[in-house]
Every structure is written in structure tokens, then in C-alpha cells.
Specification:
Elements: H1 3-15, H2 20-39, H3 41-45, H4 48-52, E1 57-66, E2 72-83, E3 89-95, H5 101-117, E4 124-129, H6 138-152, E5 161-164, H7 171-185, H8 209-223, E6 233-237, H9 241-252, E7 256-261, E8 265-268, H10 275-287, H11 293-298, E9 303-306, E10 317-320, H12 329-337, E11 342-344, H13 353-361, E12 365-367, H14 369-372, H15 375-389, H16 395-419, H17 426-444
Parallel strand pairs: 3-4, 3-5, 6-7, 6-10, 10-11, 11-12
Antiparallel strand pairs: 1-2, 2-4, 7-8, 8-9
Amino acid sequence: MSNAVELFMEGVIAKNPAEPEFHQAVQEVVESLLPVVDRHPEFQQARILERVVEPERVIMFRVPWQDDRAQVHVNRGFRVEFNSALGPYKGGLRFHPSVNLGILKFLGFEQVFKNSLTTLAMGGGKGGSDFDPKGKSDNEVMRFCQSFMTELQRHIGPNTDVPAGDIGVGAREIGFLFGQYRRLRNSFDAGVLTGKGLNWGGSLIRPEATGYGCVYFAQEMLATRNESFKGKKVMISGSGNVAQYAAEKVIELGGKVISLSDSSGFIHDPDGIGEEKLQYVFDLKNVRRGRIREYADKYSGASYHEGAGVWRLGGHVALPCATQNELNAEDAAVLAENKTLCVSEGANMPSTPDAVEVMQAGKILYGPGKAANAGGVAVSGLEMAQNSARISWTREEVDARLHDIMKSIHLQCVETAERYDTPGNYVNGANIAGFLKVAHSMLDQGLI
């Protein structure tokens, strides 16, 4: 790490102690951006870098709720409104026991650059709670969501802050949240949340968007080496929304999905998870809310393995779609040894910094999450546009727009990396391209 980066990070860590995920996200971006700041003295004079790592607003509140036995529980709610230079704050809500302020600051910081890359008018934010919806009844989840939104509603709006779903927040939770917002505001503001049901303002392709976009980005990376998904073995981690739809798109493009995982372990199916088997996974995870090990009980050719290790299976393409820091340097070394062509991140920051170094040294095409998984927020932006116009686009229209956005993001990454003397480095390309649009907008709007 250069002296300039080290000095900058000392200040960030001193201001934000005990937030390792946030420190990691900031350092990765700052390492890319310091050469850019050196070329732009106006950024230095306005202290743009120091301002962009500081959230505009952090909201923290208690969320009391009752379970089905009338026992009272108290969780903590958050909304980090990070940067609104390009538009209203935009980013998901995460309900998971691991949620804390540092994780949400990391996610909100990443969201600023991700949203910038989409070319849509969206700022960056993130929120959520340490509430765990797993194992809760629908009524318990509803009561929690209503309590959460009772506080959050005073801080959000279609032109202020537009939350969406994330881990633990799917269609059920978005419905309960929107219903409470509508009750409290006595107003049908469809644009206040994205990921809504199709009957009341949602967009086609929104559930699929992050997974599809991750695959579209990988498709563009592969094309730079005259490769495609056809006939490729694809390793996917996770088995939630992103992983499911990434698998669906890979199958559509002629690839063979050989793995999925959850927090307990992973399944390996050397015969491939085809359309029929994937429908079983949809039912298992979305309806019955079961564990991925049940897949191996259902299909005799598949095996279940506890713990990590999905990246050791040997495949042409890796799509990490589970959670942050799931792919480490040792895993990356195995990918390089097995001649994996491409890694496209469906999750947020799933690769450790050491893993990224190993992949880049091994000439693996590496698409960072802020670029590769921007499809979800891109279609959220398209949902906002449809809400504003009070119209609905067809599935084909939304998918085509998503595909075009992911192509545009890939092109921005490639061209920007070349312009700043690091050709082929998607990390630098994504960080710099996302930052420049935000930085110039901040300069235009004065010292705020």
C-alpha cells in the first residue's frame, strides 16, 4: 500500500473504528482513485475524496415488535444515506443477524459507484436491521416490517430516498413495508420502494435482474477472449434470488451450472442443474424455505458437502452470489490452477483483497460487484421510471434495457481502465468511471 493510501486510510479508520468491511471497501476504491485525484487538482482543492467517503446522513433507530406468543423483541434499524449528488438515495434493505452500521456503510459506499455506473439518476444508500426473518411466521415478519417502516417512513420518499430489497427482504417484506408506508402517509407513492408486486407498481425482470445482469457482464468479459457460456461449466455460490436467476440465465445461454450453496454447505451436480432441477430449487428455497442439502437427497447424481469449498470443483466460470468475503486467496489460487476463465461477482464484495490480487495475477477475467451486480439496481431505476410515467414495460423491453445497461457498464470499465493506464483492470475501470461522474457532480453543486 502506498504512503498516500496508508495516510488516507489512517484517517478513515480513526473516524470509523471497528468497521472492517467499510475500511476494506474504502481502501480498494482509494487505491484506484489516488492517481485520478493527482490528475485533477480541482478534486484535491475541494477535498472530494474526503467528502465522498463520509455519508451525508446516518439514521439509526429501535424496532420493537411482538412475536406470535406476544413476547416483545427489540431490534435495531438503520438507513445510511451516503451520497445524493446524482439523484435520490437508492439502495436495498437487508434483514440479517450480521447487519451492523459498518456493513451498511460498506454497502452504501459501494452503492454510490454502482449506481453511477448504471448511467441512471440515482444516488447511493443502504439500510436494514439485525432482524432475522428466517424461521419467523408471516405475521411475525409483518409486525416487524410495520414497526420498521413506522420510523423509516419519515426519512424516505420517491425524490428523497428509495429503498429496495436485499438479503432477507424479498417480495413478502417489500409488500408489508409498502402497505405500512401507504397507511401512514395516506398516499400511493409507488416510487418510494422498488421490488414491488406487479399488480401495484412493480417491474417485470426485477426479481431476475441482479442474477441476469451478473451473467450478462460475464458474457461481455468472455467475449473479449472470443469465448461464450456455451458448453462452459459454471460454479455458483448461494441459492437465493441472485444465484437462482444467474443459474437460469447461464442455462439459457448454453452453460452447465454445477453448484449452488447456502450457509451450511454446497451441492455439486456434475450432470448439471438443468431447467427441471432449477425449478425444484426455486420451490425448495422460495416456497418451502428448505436447505440446499435437500437437493442432493432428491437427485442421486448430486453430492452435498458441508462448509466452504465450492470453488475447488473446477469450472470455466465462477459466479460468487452469496455474501461478502466468501472467496479467499486460497480459493482464488485454486481457480487459477484450474484455469478458470472468468469470475463475475453477483454478491457485494464476495472476494477478499488477497483473492483479487491472485485472480488478476493469474489473468482471470475479474468483474467486481459494483459493476457485475449492478443489474438489480439498474432495473430498480427502470421501475422508478415506469412509476413516474405510470406505465409498465413488457418483459422483453425491460430485459433488453438491462442487457444494454450491462454492456454499457462493461464498456465504461474497459475504456476507463485504458484511459488511466491499467488496461484490462476491471476494478480500476469500475472505481474510476463511477467516481468521476459523482465527483464532477459534487463540484458542480458546491460545497455541501
